[in-house]
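CO-FOLDING WORKSHEET

Operator: S.A.
Ligand of interest: S-adenosylmethionine
Run index: 279
Mode: holo prediction, single chain
Checklist:
[x] sequence pasted
[x] SMILES validated
[ ] output reviewed
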Amino acid sequence: MVEVPDTGRSERIAGLFDSVVESYDNVGVAFFGPIAERLVDAVAPAPGARVLDIGCGRGAALFRLAAAVGAEGQVTGIDFAPKMVAATARDARARGLANVDVRVMDAMDPELPHGEFDVITASFVIFFLPDPAAALTRWRSLLVPRGTVGVSTFGAWDPRWEQLSDLIAPYRDRSVFTVDPRDPNGPFGSDAGVERLMRSAGLVDARSSQFDLVLRFEDVEQWYAWTRSHGQRMLWESIPENELGHVRDQVFERVDGWRDDSGLITSHHTIRLTLAQRP
Ligand SMILES: C[S@@+](CC[C@H](N)C(=O)[O-])C[C@H]1O[C@@H](n2cnc3c(N)ncnc32)[C@H](O)[C@@H]1O
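OUTPUT RECEIVED:
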């Protein structure tokens, strides 16, 4: 993949995540937690293992990894959004986790010792990177021989979101999201695509699995709060203020039609986990 000139892109993504530090994964909708749980189960670090969680955010994978490796293990979390790192480091201290270390660092080139980590995870991170293959190549060098890297990406997205396309697609900021992570023809939109990325970074035994995740929202306000609590927030922020109310009203009307028999608004997703090994 061709490296995209950064032109402030990294600062904008880090700023985006810093702006959601309080609400991220915290609006009563289980999304990043269940995904991280499956990823941690899949990479299955042994007690005592040394693990690196890249793009650790608010610790969805990090804290589960810390529990898996136990007091004898060591978990390092890195993220380039300083407020996310500060809040997660504070949580680690509050939980009394002496085996967790959280640092501000760019996933593109982590300044960490080579050949040190048994496992590397990156849950919902890889599609933010300007050159994922180059990043994976760097991550490979941080692993011990036969060490495992595991990433999560989007599988099929509920087709009903297509109903919103004519309303919101015109505002998508393509200078930040250069590739749609859900595009089935893009590098992150198929098992083969993500596995190819892994192989292009010199990793071996790339394999993927998928699982279903159903999101349930009480009402459109909770749905809206959820979409504003993570990367999708950028979309709302790309809509000019004088158009926002009108766009939002139309979006709400359509999303309200996604209610199931129980009255909850539901959204059905599949999530992909892809694992590979350092030779
Ligand atoms: C969708 S969040 C996922 C966070 C966490 N892994 C989880 O599952 O909840 C993506 C995270 O990746 C971080 N990130 C994106 N690009 C990064 C980069 N180049 N270097 C470090 N962190 C990055 C963001 O700051 C954000 O915290």
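REVIEW:
Residues 9-157+181-216+267-277 form a domain with the Rossmann fold fold (CATH 3.40.50.150).
The chain has one domain: 9-157+181-216+267-277.
[x] output reviewed
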